[in-house]
Amino acid sequence: MAGAGGGGNDVQWCFSQVKGAIDDDVAEADIISTVEFNHSGELLATGDKGGRVVIFQQETENKSQPQCRSEYNVYSTFQSHEPEFDYLKSLEIEEKINKIRWLPQKNAAQFLLSTNDKTIKLWKISERDKRPEGYNLKEEDGRYRDAATITTLRVPVFRPMDLMVEASPRRVFVNGHTYHINSISVNSDNETYLSADDLRINLWHLEITDRSFNVVDIKPANMEELTEVITAAEFHPHQCNTFVYSSSKGTIRLCDMRASALCDKHSKLFEEPEDPSNRSFFSEIISSISDVKFSHNGRYMMTRDYLSVKIWDLNMENRPVETYQVHEYLRSKLCSLYENDCIFDKFECCWNGNDSVVMTGSYNNFFRMLDRSQRRDVTLEASRESCKARQVLKPRRVCAGGKRKKDEISVDSLDFNKKILHTAWHPQENIIAVATTNNLYIFQEKVN
Amino acid sequence: MINTMECAVDAQSLISISLRKIHNSRTQRGGIKLHKNLLVSYVLRNARQVYMNEKYAEIYRMQQYEEVMTVCNEIQELNPLDLVEDCEEQTGDCCGSANESASLCGALLPVSHQVPSVHHIQPSSACSVPLALQSEEVCKSPDPSFYRSCCAEPYPVSNCDFSPVNNMHCNKTTVLDLDTHVVTTVENGYLHQDCCASLQQCYQGAQSPAKKRKLDFGYYVSEIEEVPDFTPCKRAKFEDSSYACTEPLDTSNISNLISIFGSGFTGLVSRQADLEQALNGQFCSKQALASLGAWTRAIVAF
């Protein structure tokens, strides 16, 4: 069975592929800003700062050679968003793709939602591998024939052609948000989705572009009284009435849309009291939640703040059930990280298929696998040095202080320009996609 | 790469770094990021608390407590009526009506002289919202945690002389004017002033923020347009017309902040030199203190 059950540490991860330019001079437009597997795991989408979406497709496995794991190859590339200018507010709207979310597949075509700061688009990705030939009124090149020259009639037929993948925008959801959109989430009813900006959350119907319902509004009457913003939001995977949103103050609110039309009043508030001994100038920044994700089974949710990952049981609001330190050695470096803006980096996190392991990124192209069942964690690196086919990734260790052991890297040697903000885990198999600045690494479980 | 020597967690440098970030965010592509600026404002507030605590402790290290009491007695001998006259002279152009400024001044005066003024206090209009905020801030305990924090929170306040004085002021509002070294305490509506230099200066300082806020938009529009780096004022507008009332304050708040700190903190003057070129730091730190908590939140009032 494909290793959906495998823990982060029983599994040995090995390099599979890397996508993107090799040279170190990174073009800003190529910086990857989001990574997402579709529901079957067959497709892997990335969005970048230049507004482009690239979709990779997993090749069907070669059953005669099980050692040869299936690879992801480019399936479709299209320009999703373009830079815009809001003339009324004299604001430029970045084309950077903030989030991509796949819709569950209903027919032969695939659908995904992609969003920048202001506009959400529904894209249809469809294949064309046949084309009609033998029209009566048209030549093969499209020119119309003179009707007078037609003496016989034939039935046009479909003939195979080279596979062509087309992406077309089917819906454009505009003018729903005054502030910057940070999240989109498709509802389990497959008809609606939510979009969240700094202060509001809107509910849309996938078919209707000119209207949306505002379900959460935390904008104060006087903006001078603003104390927190919404940082992420997600629908419950099974309950179509439930969603959560996280805030910059480190709280998560669970809302039930059955309770009222406007969900300003939460059903549950998840908050862990701050440890007063850890208080510093930057306490508010590092407690801000950058990502929230429900577990696949819908019983837990995971939050990521600057230094830690927390797992919450939806039935317990006063504290998380598990807390994992991602890079605690950075706590003494917060001042420098504030100066170089790294402290504002928004790391994402993800669950594996059976919710036993969670993964999140760090600096120096490190990423962390946190095994919940075995209470163990490992740090791995996505680097060009370990790019040989099926090369097993070696665990990395960071030396926080004192004597540095062999193979350890000291905190001061970490490269804070190499950050892994976006990661994704195949929904069924142990295949992970890890985005460095402009490269996408795909790692797979070592098969013996 | 982070320096091997961890940068000194110095409140003053944090304040200047934070202001620079806010300033730079105005010209960043994609518009002002509300989340980031909100977080920066929290750092600013925390750094300010520590800075104020440190300065406060320094004041009391420099001056003996007996000296303070001596001066205190001298002040109480002053004719209270002089204070009222000073206040009324300056009310004329404040908000265009004597009423609102009376409310500010009235709150600052000892209760016995407050009675006639109180009757004139009108509910503030939208324009005087900032003024109301300021009068709140000066007259009541603005943010309980702000001042009690000097007792409770483990910030590096080393001076042990500090604590006895602290305990005495724990249920009062205390404002330290960094330029004149006037320590102003408001207890049960009474104003006490210690080590005063000039009372008039203090009132003026308390009032001019209100004036400046109203004039801000006009004043800063011309300033900002002179500097090529600055984007037009309306760029900062986030909302539609429903927000129009507070819109004039939006961009000017940031430049207001920058100029406030430009002259108020000597350590910042050199670093803020480039900012001061554009925004002649005319404002003194008195205004920063007079507007206390309001300015922190004003950062995010885009």
What topology emerges from the helices and strands here?
The complex is a heterodimer of chains A (448) and B (302).
Chain A: E1 13-19, E2 32-37, E3 43-48, E4 52-58, E5 72-79, E6 84-86, E7 91-93, E8 99-102, E9 110-115, E10 120-133, E11 157-173, E12 183-186, E13 192-196, E14 200-205, E15 208-217, E16 230-235, E17 242-247, E18 252-256, E19 268-270, H1 283-287, E20 291-294, E21 300-304, E22 308-313, E23 322-325, H2 334-339, E24 349-351, E25 357-361, E26 366-371, E27 376-381, E28 397-399, E29 408-410, E30 422-425, E31 431-435, E32 440-445
Chain B: H1 11-25, H2 34-62, H3 65-76, H4 80-89, H5 98-108, H6 114-118, H7 129-139, H8 144-152, H9 162-169, E1 173-177, E2 182-187, E3 190-194, H10 199-226, H11 250-264, H12 266-269, H13 273-278, H14 285-290, H15 292-298
What does this structure look like?
The complex is a heterodimer of chains A (448) and B (302). Chain A is mainly beta. Chain A has a domain at 32-127 and 163-173. Chain A is 2% helix and 42% strand. Chain A has helices at residues 283-287, 334-339; strands spanning 13-19, 32-37, 43-48, 52-58, 72-79, 84-86, 91-93, 99-102, 110-115, 120-133, 157-173, 183-186, 192-196, 200-205, 208-217, 230-235, 242-247, 252-256, 268-270, 291-294, 300-304, 308-313, 322-325, 349-351, 357-361, 366-371, 376-381, 397-399, 408-410, 422-425, 431-435, 440-445. Chain A has a 4-stranded antiparallel β-sheet, with no helix packed on it. In chain A, a hairpin with a 5-residue loop joins strand 2 and strand 3. Chain A is globular and about 90 Å long. The two termini of chain A are 13 Å apart. Residues 1-8 of chain A have low confidence and may be disordered. Chain B has 302 residues and is mainly alpha-helical. Chain B has one domain (4-299). In chain B, 58% of the residues lie in helices and 5% in strands. Chain B is built from 15 helices and 3 strands. Chain B has helices at 11-25, 34-62, 65-76, 80-89, 98-108, 114-118, 129-139, 144-152, 162-169, 199-226, 250-264, 266-269, 273-278, 285-290, 292-298; strands spanning 173-177, 182-187, 190-194. A 3-stranded antiparallel β-sheet of chain B has the order 1-2-3. In chain B, helix 5 runs parallel beside helix 7 (129-139) and helix 7 runs antiparallel to helix 10. The longest helix of chain B is centred in the first third of the chain and has 29 residues, at 34-62. Chain B starts with 10 loop residues before the first helix and ends with a helix. Classes of the chains: A mainly beta (448), B mainly alpha (302). Chains A and B meet through strand 7, helix 1 and helix 2 of A and helix 1, helix 2 and helix 15 of B. Chain B: It holds the Pfam family IER. Chain B: It comes from Sinocyclocheilus grahami. Chain B: This is Immediate early response gene 5-like protein. Chain B: Belongs to the IER family. Chain B: InterPro entries: IER (IPR008653).
